[in-house]
Amino acid sequence: MYRGGRRRILTAAQVKDLRQRAEKGESKASLARDFGITWDTVYPYLKTAPDA
Q: CA-based, 20 to 30 A from 17: which of 3, 10, 24, 30?
């Protein structure tokens, strides 16, 4: 089934880690650097449902 959009860059485990660190207050720019993505790519990962 076609879900649309671009393929995921981060694995489910990485997304979980990203969300946990963001909830603790880590900056989006710092997260982006650590995960090798741009800061504007961080936001869609934080906005999507946890099981998406």
A: 3
Q: Which residues lie below 8 Å from residue 41, measured CB to CB, with a gap of 6+? A: 9, 32
Count CB atoms within 10 A of the CB of residue 37: 16
pLDDT classification of 37: cutoffs 50, 70, 90: very high
Residue 27 — φ and ψ, nearest 5°?
Answer: -70, 150
Give residue limits of the domains in the chain. Answer: 12-47
The pTM score is 0.77
DSSP code string of 14-27: HHHHHHHHHHTT--
Q: Which of 14, 46, 9, 39 shows the shortest CA–CA distance to 31?
A: 39
